[in-house]
Prior knowledge:
It is a single chain. The chain has 320 residues and is of the alpha/beta class. 47% of the residues lie in helices and 12% in strands. The chain has helices at residues 13-26, 41-47, 64-75, 88-108, 144-154, 173-186, 193-208, 219-230, 251-259, 286-319, and strands at residues 3-7, 31-36, 53-57, 112-115, 119-121, 128-129, 132-133, 136-137, 168-171, 236-237, 240-241, 264-266. α1 (13-26) links the parallel β1 and β2. α4 packs across α6 and α6 (173-186) packs across α8.
Amino acid sequence: MPNICQVSLKGNCPIILDNLENFNKFYKENYFYIICPNKDKKFFKKKIKKKNVKIINENSLISFRKFRGISNKYFKKTKYHKVIQGRLSWYYQQILKISFVIDFVEKNKKNITIWDADTILINKLDFTNKKFSNYFGTTSYFHKAYYHTNKNILGELPKYYISSLAQFISISPLEINFLIKKLKQKKRRLKNTSEWITNIIMQSIAKVHNEYNGSLFSEYELIGQSNLIFNFKKQILVSGIRDFLSGRLTKAQIKILKILGFKYIAYEHTHPNFYSNNMLKRYQPWSKFIQILLKKLSNNVYRGLKHHFCFFLRINKTNI
């Protein structure tokens, strides 16, 4: 039974409802934990009246005010202290996800998957394999700043990896225990998990990065690379449609994606750009959809083959 964690504002509610419907089709049992601001809690409870959904006030983990105070203890020493203030809410939702899954897995001894609130599942995925989660990867992204931060937090990086930015990441009790062990080596565990995680991650970002580029840490990359260090294996290539969408896909367009093996659609409707503005209120033009699809397919073939080849070379080099 998939357990799903999401952090969301109320603007994602239409997407979450569509995603819930698909999860209920693909899995007989599933349970969603949706973490939201206190001001949005009543809205979510009114809109999502499903027995397999629990709405959680983000303040029960850590308030944004508390998070910001801890973060600025480290960022005030950097030259990007002022500019990063506008990005703190983005880092905050990452802290909420990580701390929730740590507490959830420790308490329940069950696997859990973080799933982006702007993403809809369109084909079934196997999130776990017995005692371990399945390690998915994508060749569409590779942001070095994330890995520099991870190396400081984890003390090492996997011997080979591609990006874990696949809109979701899973973790099992064995894997969470390993991650906690790594985090304890950075800082003694505090009673409040969210405060503990905030100190570790924000301190690492401030220590590692002299220059600010907006994205200096990813919860998906941290968990993905921790999993690979603990139980190294080849990442499973997974693909979805995300970049350059300017509207919701039609039923026919989604059917094509399903046939071609795509697993999800991500609607980044909150970004302040032409493509994102009001994208949920219009349909995706076919001409642009075909362009996006062809570019994505060519990327999957070329970089997918490169991934298999590089993994083969790396493993054989290690075994020599």
